[in-house]
Write the structure tokens for this entry.
Amino acid sequence: MKLPATDQNTGGSNGRWAVDRFGGHIAYLNGTYGEVSIVPSGVPTSPLAQMEAQVYSPSVIGRSMPWAPVWQLNKPSTWTLALTTGSGTVLRTLTGSSTGAAVRPAWDGTTDTGAGAGSGPFTWRLTAHPRDGQGPDLTLSGTITLG
């Protein structure tokens, strides 16, 4: 297949094709009705990566105001968020699967048994696995303080 790289008049993209910089595919318009075709480019997909994050932690976390961080990744993932004490004891494990690229867990300050976690510093560890199965897992970590 041959795709025109530039518009002959302007020297820019002719707007009839685009490359998915994360997924490794090319989408192009074909036919008279603007049908879209998608073909592999032969370039491997990008590994899972964090694009941005909002992990601000309010000092008071509870059922009515959970800690609700957001990690924007470059592609969909399944994920596990573990919250641990300073000694490494796992208090709570949250899991999910993103349909888009955003990971949006919510922790209400309770343990896996439903008891209150108490106050103090806690470590969070996010492990995300790419849903397309391409590339290694992404692991991020940080701390939050309650109370």
The chain is about 0% helix and 40% strand. Strands lie at 17-19, 25-30, 35-40, 50-54, 70-73, 77-84, 90-97, 102-103, 120-130, 138-146.
